[in-house]
Amino acid sequence: MHNTDHLPSYTPSYIPTWVNAEEQTPQSMPPAMPEDAGKEQAAARRKFLRAAGRAAVGITGIGAATLAASHEGVLGASKTLTFGDIPTLGLLALPGLNLKADVKVLNYALALEDLESELYRQCVARLTGGGYTQQGVSIPGLNLSHYLPDVYHIMQFAGVEAAHREFLRGALKLDGLIPGLGIHPKKYQFGVENMSREQILAMLIDVEATGTMAYLGAIPFFRTKIFLTTAAGILGTEARHTAALQAIQNRLLMDKLIADGTPAPPAPLATTNNGIDTPMDPDAVLAKVSPFIVG
Ligand SMILES: [Fe+2]
Ligand SMILES: [Fe+2]
């Protein structure tokens, strides 16, 4: 038994009582999203669709097939993608409302959320009962309890990321008004099949932090105000994911140090931003994620 009396009490309020996995028996998957969050997303999406639908009224006669065919997604090429590769819609330049730039930003966001949600799916498979990558590579499961703090939150955030992806897909399709406008889903290889629990957590923290910086770096490219609130809402969620996973990483490290008999204060959370997150240029973000895209 190690004397840890001198350590500060470290029980963050966000970690529920079920973190003591030995005393708990998993009953079921945690909810993917709180019910209220789903309602808010649905409301935001309806609001967005109303605005976008009004903007699109002037182009409905052009022919959805023509629009879709001229803007096939180009992601998936075995090269380093740039913001210039992200598809947009050249015909949405309506008088007083130029949505071309905004559609490009939304497609950029969709590209990132598509990757992020598939990464979470594969990470959950690795941490729990296993599964397969999109290319059929087996992911052996580590069979960890769903009630461990990292596993629980990663499973929950996987649902949120899937919701981000579906929100953007739905928004870009304008509920069928311009089918095919959004980029096509891609295939990714992250190497999770060989990762440890700690490596999974570290990778997700990196991706979440990158996602936060990516939204911040993309917001200046909007040319209308229509999507700003939604983008800021997603940005805030990505930042919250980053913080939660960092806190869990700290907690797990602390537990390990105590168990090893070498207790030390928790590592500080990332505070190198001086209180203001740093934007990341879209080209830099795409260069970072391009190696994961395999098809
Ligand atoms: Fe996301
Ligand atoms: Fe996230």
Largest sheet: 2 strands, antiparallel
- The averaged pLDDT comes out at 75
Radius of gyration over alpha carbons? 21 Å
Largest sheet strand order: 1-2
Q: Can you list the ligands bound to this structure? A: fe (ii) ion
Q: How would you sum up the global shape?
A: globular
Description:
The structure is a single chain. With 295 residues, the chain is mostly helical. It has a domain at 99-292: Ferritin. The chain is globular. Strand 3 (131-132) and strand 4 form a beta hairpin. Helix content is 48%, strand content 3%. Helix 3 (100-127) packs antiparallel against helix 4 (149-173), helix 3 packs antiparallel against helix 5 (197-218) and helix 5 runs antiparallel to helix 6. The strands form 2 sheets. It has a two-stranded antiparallel ribbon with strand order 1-2. The site of one fe (ii) ion (FE2) has 6 residues, from helix 3 and helix 4. Residues 157, 161, 208, 211, 238, 241 line the site of one fe (ii) ion.
Defining traits:
4 strands; two-stranded antiparallel ribbon; 295 residues; disordered N terminus; binds fe (ii) ion; Ferritin
Brief rundown of the structure:
The chain is an all-alpha fold and 295 residues long.
